[in-house]
Amino acid sequence: MAGQEKIARGTWGSKIAFIFAAAGSAIGLGNIWRFPMMVGKNGGAIFVLVYILGVAFIGFCVMLAEFTVGRHTQKNPVGAIERIKPRSPWKLIGYLGVITGVFILSYYSVVMGWAAGYFVKTVAGVFKKDVTSQLTDKIFAQFTSSPTQTIFWLLVTIFLTAFIISRGVKKGIEQATKILMPLLFIILIFLAIRALTLPGAERGVAFYLKPDFSKLKGTTVLFALGQAFFSLSLGMGTMITYGSYIFKSDNLVSSAAWVSFSDTLIAFIAGLVVFPTLFAIPGIEPTAGPGLVFKVLPLIFSKIPGGYIFGVLFFFLLILAALTSTISLLEVPVAYLVDERNWSRNKATWTVALTSFVLGIPSALSSGGMKLFTKLNVLSVFDFIFGNISLAFGSLLICLFVGWVWGIKNAIQEVHAGNPRFTIKALWAFSIKILSPLAIIFILIYIKTIVAG
Asked: Are 122 and 301 in contact (CB under 8 A)?
């Protein structure tokens, strides 16, 4: 019976396929767009150092916990919690993950649509000649305030994601990520090499890799921990769902380590693309904020040798990074409907996709497309609620559930199925039961102080 269920749900064809898919989920706009922005605003290299420590001691541990729950139950987030602790309120963790995934997909697809639109603009040569900062500001404002363009690109990105998911685990997710992840890595390496050869690049490298400990502040630590945590796609059941497709013989520890390493490596290389490029143009500050990619980089591409190719590849890279994440965002609610409601994968995929498209319209219109949604700043509100609070709260509950409710002994026994030695089990147990929950609570408290302020 269990074997039939697993075949019906799907499995990964190999361990490397799973690592590509899970890494693809973690790697997204947060690595290539948000990470450089946060580095620039929070002290440069010192932020990078704290971020790496956060991934190693917190992010990796929470990811392993989610993989363990998923493989043990071979269920989606709701079904997984219900199987371990039947008829208890703890399954609300799963429902929170499903809802969070749908809402994040709705506005994340809007930003992915911006990347797609800018890719087309770059290919068309919009940023080739006589580009000024005023022009890039104007182009961005016109594009994001156009209801026709933003909704069209939202529809395109949702459709593309749904098409891949509808094909299932092996034919859809696995095949897509096997192609997308190596391609993303190759393009990023090429861009980094190009950036490092620009005149003045050494100043950008120094800003990025030479820590200035005088810039270490409490906010730097909190933002770095938050970035490390949120960039790994934790707290919404994605890694529980992906873990449910893993064979018992697979080593969960090495899988979590590879995914965490890949996510961090992509973010790190993205910084090697952005900061040497930024410092190659005098007068541009690394603290440009959210407009860094869509306003500043097109200006830079217009002024550097080979900038046209550089720009086309960069925005294509953004699309690839976003797509690997939207695939995982859609898979969580789809897996729930397939497992718990006995829906066909096709019906579940297109129903959730349509729902996410409708929910995404207010976000698409919140940058000038409609006065009401612009005033409410829907995209930012959704990102704050679901991309920050929901993920952090969901991850906190996962740590408490694995460490104190299911029990760390049971979790370790599941890990032992594919890794009999598990030499770091004492450190992992401490992180899941004590360190990670405390760190997440501090993040939530800090978020609360921002709201109160």
From this structure: yes
Torsion of CA 343, 345, 348, 353, to 10 degrees: 180
Q: Determine the Cα–Cα distance for residues 83 and 62; give it in Å rounded to an integer.
A: 20
Instruction: Place 397 in a pLDDT band, splitting at 50, 70 and 90.
Output: very high
What is the span of the domain harbouring residue 360? 2-452
Please answer whether residues 189 and 269 qualify as being in contact, where contact means their C-beta atoms are separated by less than 8 angstroms.
Answer: yes
CATH number at residue 327: 1.10.4160
pLDDT score at 169: 54
Residue 199 has pLDDT above 90, yes or no: no
CA distances to 38, 147, 301 from 326, rounded to whole Å, are 22, 22, 27
Query: Can you give the pTM of this predicted structure?
Result: 0.84
Kindly report the CA angle at 266 between 262 and 269, in degrees rounded to 5? 135
Instruction: Answer for the pair 204, 277: CB distance below 8 angstroms, yes or no.
Output: yes
Strand segments (E) across 307-402: none
DSSP category for residue 198:
S
Number of domains in the chain: 1
Q: Cβ neighbours of residue 350 under 8 Å, at least 6 residues apart?
A: 162, 166
